[in-house]
Write a structure and sequence with these properties.
Strand order of the largest sheet: 1-2-6
Radius of gyration: 22 Å
Strand content: 15-25%
Number of helices: 7
Shape: globular
Largest sheet: 3 strands, mixed
Oligomer: single chain
Number of domains: 2
Length: 254
Amino acid sequence: MTSIKKTRDENGLLTDIEYKFAEDGFINWRGMIKPEFLYPNRDFFDSRNQEVPTSVEGLEDRQLLIMLAGIKELARLRGFKSVSYDVKHIDTNYVVATCSIEWIGNYETAGEIVKFQDIANATADNTDDFCIKFLETIACNRAFVRCVRNFLNIHIVGFDEIDKSKNKKVSSAPIVSNALPITAQGTLEKLVNEKLSITEFPEYKKHLRGLWTKASESNDEKILDLLMEAKGWNSFKDIPAKSARILIKHMSDG
């Protein structure tokens, strides 16, 4: 079988594809999704005691789901150099995956290659009995879907992202790292768990030592003063609330 080589023009667009454009001149990636990759979000209608439509015609984005195949097609149309995953096993029944995609340059990025990443999890409490056997795969699929659609500004949730634990009894053995108090320290710990995939405080202190180097280079006195206190911290509870809020803002801004 002879392979067909796809070619792109000077704008980074495939020459044999008819693109749809928004008023601002950028590509309307939402409009590039083929109808066969969309279907009504049953949960949306069931939760409102409404009949599930038999067609996607006229439905809003929040009333739809997109198939993984549709996300893959969008990624191929946009063009990418590589896809990689970082998988963390937070717990026996809790997997976190970060998907990183290196997108080729096009006119939307001034020809520059752009690396974008997103994160997702798969747990015993948000998957069904079948999917729980493949938590790593589910987490990676969810992260990939989020990475593609968030980069392309698509607001339709992917089928792979939805909670599939419907009618399933939630585990009576909660994951300790999730049971965090609603305090500045607890919020910081949760953010560290989810964004950095760090679950042990000594590991977070190592991260802070790396932060010291960056703060020194940028002469960030607020962070440097805060990190001087960190030497005496042995747990998230030891972090003063004010310092925890500064670290939360720093992570959010970064």
